[in-house]
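Suppose you are handed a protein chain with no further information: no name, no annotation, nothing but its sequence. What can you learn? This example shows the usual starting point.
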Amino acid sequence: MITRDELLELLNKTESYRVEKTISTTNMDKFCEAICAFANDMPNSKKKGYLLIGVNDDGSRCGLKVNDDLLLKISSIRTDGNILPLPIMTVDSISFDDGDVIVVEVTPSILPPVRYRGRTFIRVSARKDIATREEEDILTERRSANFPTFDTTPCAEATIDDIDTEIIKRTYLPRAINADVLAQDTRNLKEQLAALRLYDLRTDRPTNAAIILFGKRPEYFLLGNYIQFVRFNGRDNATDITNQFEFKGSLAAMLPKLDTFIETSLIQNRPVAVSALKEESAYNYPLWAIRELLMNAVMHRDYKTHTPTKLYQYSDHLEITNAGGLYGNARPENFPNVNDYRNPIVAEALKVMGYVNMFNRGVARVQSLLEQNGNGNAQFVVDRITTFGVNIKDASANDEIDIKHIQKTDIKTDTKTDTKTSKKILETITNDPAISLAELAEITNLSLSGVRWQIAKLRKFGKLEREGGRKGGRWVIIKK
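A reasonable first move is to predict its three-dimensional structure. Written in structure tokens, the prediction is:
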């Protein structure tokens, strides 16, 4: 805590980025804003800040008499939950003949930005204000510097021989560094990699990011660094497994293989009847949406765990699960509008290599592609601490029954069968030709498969037709 002589020295000085004086004893907002600003230490002085209560601007005392209740009131600022993260502060009083002074000593936070009721306050010189976005970015970067992420730390036991330096020199450096700059760069490879935070010169070891991205055998150092694909015959894990595979290796080697697998094995293209004489191509999943979700999974996952990224395909949906819940500023209540990066170097590299973007638009793009394809919105599982998941419905599970297939099935009923149900469906379609099968199921109190059966029957007997595809199409009642 500050001494009496040090306090007298501060009292004789004007207000600065380290000192604020006030005669108020009741303006708690002012006190909290000052404490928040000192904790953020915008000038990065690493020096403590002081809020002096009971002092005029010229440093003279105002005759304040401090009691225990007032000291307790000021001290409670630290734990009332309005300033987060909790500030490191001490509160004391020093008595003079002309009045007491309450001294609030605030230590710069190692976890900036510190916010008071959601707002970040800073001091620049004697000015106190709300931080701009750029100033908040500076504080956030400072926090990252204080606490390096896992991917920026050196990988224990690994050496430069454990990463594929040839692929780095051949494909990554030319993309990550301007060609003219790279041509004039006389640094050795380790120094070049260190500039990209792929190598730690102090320990002479590659970082975890280098192992994840370009390691020759990353699973030796990071046991969960692979993608586990399993295809089930039914809708849950209790059904038979029809295929399984593990994608292993560095991301630079693995992701091209994963891209090919998604396009050739996961995505299925098939004809779907939209009328008796017309078919159109349909996909169970949109390629770029699934690709985006998988790339985000490997980018945001927690690589410290032994759990792989899971890609599970069921008969009616797809599940992607990765280790590590929402990270940093991202929380269930603000997802997906707020994003944060658990592995910023991995994320940067994936962007350089063209696999992902870093503009927080991935989820919106995925939802748009899924909606256009007829899958409906992806369901994100964001309320778990240790995992993050997403479920995507198979669009083919919502397809109508192919008219050619229906003509071969055993529909031997005549037009009088299920007259009430058929009539209800036709009446509903008359009022809303663009109605979906799911909406019809809800109105008629039938299952989705029951509605499909009724629709197939009405089409077989020439009472109903479809114009257009699943998106933007409409039902047409045939009147004879």
